[in-house]
Write a structure and sequence with these properties.
The chain is an alpha/beta fold and 293 residues long. It has helices spanning 3-10, 31-46, 60-66, 79-91, 107-117, 135-143, 168-178, 184-197, 224-233, 259-269, 277-280; strands at 50-54, 71-76, 99-101, 120-125, 146-157, 236-246, 281-290. It folds into 2 domains: 3-160 and 205-290, Vaccinia Virus protein VP39 (Rossmann fold), CATH 3.40.50; 166-202, no CATH class. A 7-stranded mixed beta sheet has the order 3-2-1-4-5-7-6, sandwiched between helices.
């Protein structure tokens, strides 16, 4: 099944993760609420007056940003998300026509969108690059929308977090990332040992009856150092990492901790802001500045 169908199925409830009234009641931790706070801070610090977003979802974040006076536009691949996005834009007094329906991996559609929208002080993509197959092409698409001296804000699923999970993700990271080039015979011995040491049955694979659950579609993790290299190769510099979605204990023992106490500890960590986030956070943001022409 497709990325588009997955997000079609999520569109009606997508806003819930940004609702401050649900921070303590949502079953799933509302990490994206804190992501939006982080993005708004970065935009304010950079003095951004205009912003283009690749993959707007239901545009709750983009319309929230737009309601502060920043000029915004963007697109999404999901028809249902675009429907909700346009409604959210209109509800905040913004032009719904600023939201387009297109695939960020379609270079022709991106070129036409750039011709229509122009260039911006900043470009962002939140929760999109996990679903694309070509990182270089995607960063190139982001680049087309931002002026020289402007900001790039790129969210990614953090592969380094797997060193703190002690589960299936740890095994995959060690075998597929750390031990690249090691003979298969040795990797096999390591794999067997890891099976005995780690909770390789966790985390559970997220599925849907429709076959388009999050773990059934393309949803990659990225190494922050490798992704930063891609960004720099496209003419950006001054890379900074920002972390969110903190875990105060490795997930395999989270059920041994009172749920309210665990969530309070998560929320308290969200502004921790040090190197620890590279290991405690399942997601991060790369911020970079486009070099002068």
């Amino acid at each position: 099944m497709s990325v588009s169908s997955h997000y079609d199925g999520s569109a009606a409830s997508y806003f819930e993760q940004f609702d401050p009234e649900r921070i303590w009641t949502n079953k799933e931790y509302p990490a994206n609420y804190f992501r939006l706070q982080l993005v708004q801070r970065l935009l304010a610090e950079a003095g951004v007056n205009s912003l283009y977003e690749l993959g707007v979802g239901d545009a709750t974040p983009l319309s929230t940003i737009g309601s502060t006076g920043i000029q915004v536009a963007g697109h999404d691949i999901s028809p249902e998300m675009v429907k909700f996005a346009r409604a959210n834009m209109e509800a905040r007094g913004l032009d719904p026509a600023l939201i387009s329906l297109l695939d960020a991996q379609d270079s022709g559609a991106i070129a036409a969108e750039r011709e229509l929208r122009g260039e911006f002080d900043a470009v962002m993509a939140l929760g999109v690059i996990p679903h694309v197959s070509d990182d270089n092409a995607f960063v190139a698409a982001m680049d087309t929308f931002v002026r020289p001296g402007g900001r790039l804000i790129l969210q990614f699923r953090n592969s380094m977090f797997s060193m703190f999970t002690f589960n299936r993700l740890t095994k995959e990271f060690i075998l597929d990332e750390l031990l690249v080039g090691v003979p298969d015979a040795i990797r096999g011995i390591v794999a067997t040992d890891l099976d005995a040491r780690l909770a390789v049955d966790k985390p559970p694979v997220r599925t849907r009856p429709t076959g388009d659950g999050y773990d059934e579609i393309l949803s990659r993790f990225h190494n922050p150092f490798e992704l930063a290299q891609v960004v720099e190769q496209h003419g950006f510099s001054g890379v900074k990492y920002h972390w969110y979605n903190y875990h105060p204990a490795y997930p395999m023992i989270a059920d041994q901790i009172d749920a309210r106490a665990y969530r309070e500890a998560q929320v308290a960590l969200e502004h921790e802001g040090t190197w620890r986030g590279m290991y405690l956070c399942s997601a991060g943001i790369i911020e970079a500045v486009k070099d002068p022409a």
